[in-house]
Fold this sequence. Notes:
Elements: E1 2-7, H1 11-22, E2 28-31, H2 58-69, E3 75-77, E4 81-86, E5 92-96, E6 101-109, E7 113-115, E8 131-132, H3 135-138, E9 146-150, H4 154-164, E10 169-173, H5 183-190, E11 195-198, E12 201-209, E13 212-220, E14 225-228, E15 233-235, E16 239-241, E17 276-278, H6 290-311
Parallel strand pairs: 1-2, 1-6, 2-3, 6-17, 8-15, 9-10, 9-15, 10-11
Antiparallel strand pairs: 4-5, 5-6, 7-16, 12-13, 13-14
Helix pairs in contact: 1-2, 1-6, 4-5
Amino acid sequence: MLNLAIIGGGPAGLAAGLYATRGGLKDVVMFEQGMPGGQITSSSEMENYPGVATVLDGMSFMAPWQEQCFRFGLKHEMAFVQRVSQNSDKTFTIHLDDGKTQIAKAVIVCTGSEPKRAGFKGEDEFFGRGVSTCATCDGFFYKNKEVAVLGGGDTAIEEAQYLANICSKVYLIHRREGFRAAPITLEKARKNEKIEFLLNAVVDEVYGDKSGVNGVIVKFKDGSTRDLKVPGIFTFVGLNVRNSVIKDEAGKFICDVNEAGQIVVNLKMQTSVPGLFAAGDIRIDAPKQVVSAAADGAVAALSVISYIEANH
């Protein structure tokens, strides 16, 4: 039996593993289907993590985390967790996609979030063929070409600047005149001559052929439209939490969640189910910042140690 199962290998999961094992907990396994690192690995720029003064891409930033977080005995199992269920003795069963199961005394859910779809016509049809949510992954394919970016938050503005270093021009499409992005981030983008702001506008349609995207129809608030002849568009319109692991076979949540499906936790990262904890983007009121996710993971791990000492 595991003492602790950590589901998810981003900053929250890795930090939880580090603090749990360094705190003396044995038999701690982190379930992550791919390489650890989380959503931040697709970021083009990481410059606001305290103590790391060098500006790094997300992949480079997360690289040393793995070595450090596995140093004290954390184990990584490359498996996809379908769901978690609680047993009559208050332990938990971890149901894996290959049909196998593992039992754990406590669980920390750190499954994070994933980019939302924007909902415009052609988005699903051309996703992966000109529609992308990762500038770091796909920006190189548009070297010296024009592209569009949809969104008004920090991620959208930062990725527009990243693309401006590769592409000949970037059209930044935002539905309002005001932005959620940090003022300093927005100021940098406004000073970039390669970025053209299209405000009070939405993407009406993306069109193309078998080869991929050929253009983007932008619709403005006054009803006018503009046809951007671009081969690619990057969308950054928010995130959806990955909460399927806390649903039972009938699709019902096993712990309390809010209307957005985010897990309700207290300051100790405890859910409504004793022994079940949550950390990072999956929880309510998550700032969706790496530093916050790492802190959540540490808090959850320390809470798990106290829980196991008191109950097992």
